[in-house]
Specification:
The chain is an alpha+beta fold. Helices cover 49% and strands 17% of the residues.
């Protein structure tokens, strides 16, 4: 132990004397260790969050969500390996009372849901059997977060009444934290859609049956949870589910195609695969950084070979010589670990700042005790890995040739091959990582640069769902929406206002069954379902959708006017062969005919090309919709007008909430958030890796050239040209770079095939990305090989002859 302490002190003094070398080695290791620590903190924050259900490993969830309520009834009547079966359905509702109105999410649960998940009440009581009688529920439970926000955590909340969609419910209890609905369990999901119930109601019947009082037109599905019996496994549950589904399909319809997924796997989703990509990227970065430092230690070992030869001649064991090298490496890696924690902390702040606006759970990403312990372990392993090769080399030095004044040709040959191998490894790994990052970055940029057919920038959106009691008649709703458009246009900073039943980039798109009649042909086309949108106000101007022919829908298109529609280019090409032939053609919905007065540009989302679409004037469409989206094009930041918009609607009707008020760009770009973070991080790691590799190539070539200074001097003295000397000496470095490029392309082709699921706009063999990245790495690598030779040649190497 005393000898080890002496080695530590000696290594510390040596590293302090060689401050430039130590600084480069520590900074290089810190980049790799810091990257690994950052990814670990992201993984721990997003995946290690415990599921707040009792014995969650025994719970499975039906995937996809339930499509036929009769299957749930079969699972309850014939449970087989299921100890318990429960269903959860979510819908939105208007909450109105004396203090105002707001939009909340309501979770509806079957009788066994609370017991299956182990959910308890902190205040009041839970649901009883009587609450699930086949009638309209009259009681509800508050979640802890909603109780604190709405009632200030007052115990007097129990017993009070809440009015949801014009129906009164009595509060019977408050759910104990930390409760999360099944929809709210998946980690780091996009914030484009609001999730997580505020209150719970008993589910007393088929949730797929339309509630006439509901103000929510969106179907959010039914989550079915099952708890397996002791001794049962998931495969048995899937087999029993398949038997029930076959019974149902044989008696009532086609197969359902459901399966069971373990709840932890459902919660993780595709995030583990994405984090695995990120982990692979930082692992490559750490390997390249470690290889670089190993190279530096190897070069430093050559500089100290005379010292090591003397130690060996004086009787030092090979084990002790190797221990000296390992001690140097461990000191460097531990210092790199400390600096790496600082890099990880700064990176964590950047990731949260970049993704916090778009992804949930980023508040759990932090550098804590787990990250520090992991960083210490990685630093230790990195130090052992970095010091192993230089230590083995130093411990095998033959002291006799060195004490006689030379290294020996055999030692030079071994050293040259080892350097070449390290350079090839660095170039290959850097190329692989940069290609992966380049593919993800190109895929993301293609999505963000895609012409969507409209301009979401500068547009504020808000949702309105009218009470079916207060606005029972279509004319009442029409009058209210007209007032909303008129009043919002009077808000300072608003350029245009419109209403639609389905905003671009939103969660759903309605369709309508139509027939098309051509003026020059007597026949009508067969009935077909096409996407449709019901709009009011200056819709096309608000979204900056260009008109290709005719006019847009406007104030002329009231209920009593001639029924007219606008189609998009895809619709016009599909049915009439082009935009020029669509004007004045007829579109039939049932027996009602609509004349085409305009053709608008195509609108699409980020994941799918434009489809045929038809636009109806709100007051002329037969199916009146009480739920609409308000769109405002504003002259300043959209968020600044959120408060004035809310006040304006409240002035029209204090009991009518406007909700989900936010910029349209958040809805459109929100789903790209995780891809953006992943692409940005891998691209950054790739750039850091190539910088580290460049330093390594430069350092390796510099060491090789330094050992050949005498040879260079002799060549120049004998009349060789500078260009020929540079080309000859740099050839070996260039060949190493070339081998690294070839190997890197092969490795990249193999590894990037695993990224297919994360690429939408490009393929994993995208030629442009490979060409650009290969050229970049080649230029950097060759520059690192040639620059040291030029530096030595220009530095009067003939002085080396005089010094000898």
């Amino acid at each position: 132990m005393e000898l080890l302490w002496l080695d530590v002190r000696a290594s510390a003094r040596t590293l302090m004397r060689n401050r430039a070398f130590s600084a480069v080695a520590i900074a290089t290791l810190a980049l790799g260790i810091g990257g690994v620590s950052l990814v670990f903190s992201i993984t721990a924050g997003l995946l290690a969050d415990a599921i707040p259900y009792q014995r969650a490993n025994e719970i499975c969830i039906l995937q996809p969500s339930l499509s036929d309520w009769r299957l749930f009834e079969l699972m309850g009547s014939d449970p087989g390996p299921f100890a318990s079966v429960a269903a959860y359905n979510e819908r939105a509702a208007n909450l109105a009372d004396a203090t105002g109105a707001e939009r909340i999410l309501v979770g509806r649960v079957t009788p066994t849901f609370l017991s299956l998940t182990g959910t308890r009440t902190a205040v009041g009581r839970g649901f009883s059997k009587d609450d699930f009688q086949p009638r309209q529920p009259t009681v509800l439970l508050l979640t802890d977060a909603f109780w604190r926000r709405r009632f200030g955590a007052s115990l007097r909340a129990v017993g009070q009444t809440l009015t949801l969609d014009d129906r009164a419910y009595t509060i019977i209890g408050v759910i104990a934290p930390p409760f999360r609905a099944p929809e709210d369990l998946p980690s780091a999901r996009s914030l484009a859609a609001r999730i997580g119930a505020d209150v719970l109601l008993p589910l007393t019947g088929n949730p797929q049956a339309r509630d006439p009082a509901s103000t929510d037109r969106m179907w959010r599905g039914v989550d079915v949870l099952v708890r397996l019996r002791p001794g049962a496994n998931v495969d048995q549950g899937r087999s029993h589910l398949g038997t029930l589904a076959r019974q149902l399909s044989g008696r009532l319809g086609p197969g359902l195609g459901h399966t069971l997924v373990r709840l932890p796997d459902y919660v993780a989703g595709d995030l583990p695969r994405q984090l695995a990509l990120l982990g692979a990227a930082v692992t490559l970065l750490l390997v390249v950084a470690g290889t670089n430092v190993a190279h530096l230690l190897l070069a430093r070992g050559l500089a100290r070979r005379q010292e090591m030869a003397i130690r060996s001649a004086l009787g030092a064991a090979r084990r002790h010589l190797m221990q000296c090298s390992l001690t140097d490496a461990l000191l460097l890696s531990l210092c790199g670990g400390v600096l790496g924690v600082c890099f990880a902390w700064a990176g964590e702040a950047s990731v949260v700042g970049l993704a916090g606006e778009w992804l949930s759970r980023t508040d759990r990403v932090r550098v804590d005790g787990r990250v520090l312990a992991f960083t210490a372990l990685v630093s230790l392993l990195a130090g052992l890995g970095v010091g192993l090769v230089p230590g083995l080399h130093v411990s095998r030095i033959d002291p006799l040739p060195l004490l006689n004044g030379g290294m020996g040709s055999r030692g030079q040959m071994k050293q040259g091959w080892l350097r070449t191998l390290l350079v090839v490894t660095q170039i290959a790994l850097s190329l692989t990582l940069l290609i992966g990052g380049g593919l993800l970055a190109k895929d993301f940029l293609r999505a963000t640069w895609l012409d969507l057919g409209f301009d979401p920038a500068g547009v504020l959106v808000g949702e309105l769902s009218l009470s079916r009691v207060a606005y029972a008649e279509p004319e009442q709703g029409n009058a209210f929406f007209r007032k909303v458009l008129d009043r919002t246009m009077a808000i300072p900073g608003v350029q245009a206002a419109a209403l639609t039943n389905s905003a671009p980039g939103g969660p759903s798109m309605a369709s309508v069954n139509i027939r098309v009649r051509r003026n020059d042909v007597a026949e009508e086309t067969p009935e077909a379902d096409e996407q449709c949108e019901v709009v009011a106000g200056a819709y096309f101007a608000t979204l900056a959708i260009p008109m290709r022919a005719g006019r847009p829908l406007d104030e002329r298109d009231r209920r009593t006017a001639e029924p007219v529609v606008v189609t998009n280019e895809q619709f016009a090409r599909k049915y009439w062969g082009g935009t020029g032939f669509a004007i004045n053609q007829q579109v039939l919905v049932g027996e009602r005919g609509y004349r085409v007065v305009g053709v608008a540009g195509n609108v699409q989302d980020l994941e799918a090309p434009a489809q045929p679409r038809i636009y109806f004037a709100y007051e002329q469409f037969a199916a009146w919709s009480p739920q609409m989206t308000l769109l405002l094009r504003v002259t300043e930041g959209p968020k600044t007008l959120a408060a004035p918009l809310t006040r304006t609607v409240a002035e029209l009707n204090r009991l009518q909430p406007i909700y989900d008020v936010r910029p349209l760009k958040e809805i459109v770009v929100g789903p790209l958030a995780r891809r953006a973070v992943l692409a940005a991080l891998i691209a950054v790691f790739g750039l850091v890796t190539i910088i580290v590799a460049c330093v390594g190539v430069y350092g390796a070539t510099s060491c090789a050239v330094a050992e050949r200074r005498r040879e260079i001097a002799i060549r120049l003295a004998l009349g060789a040209s500078v260009s020929r000397v540079v080309a000859t000496i740099a050839l070996r470095g260039g060949m190493a770079v070339l081998c690294g490029l070839v190997l890197g392309i092969g490795v990249a082709l193999s590894l990037t095939s695993l990224m297919r699921a994360h690429l939408v706009g490009v393929t994993h063999t995208d030629v442009g990305t490979y060409a650009v990245v290969t050229l970049l790495v080649a230029v950097v690598g060759l520059g690192g090989s040639v620059a040291p030779v030029v530096k030595v040649v220009r530095g009067q190497p003939l002085a080396a002859l005089h010094s000898d």
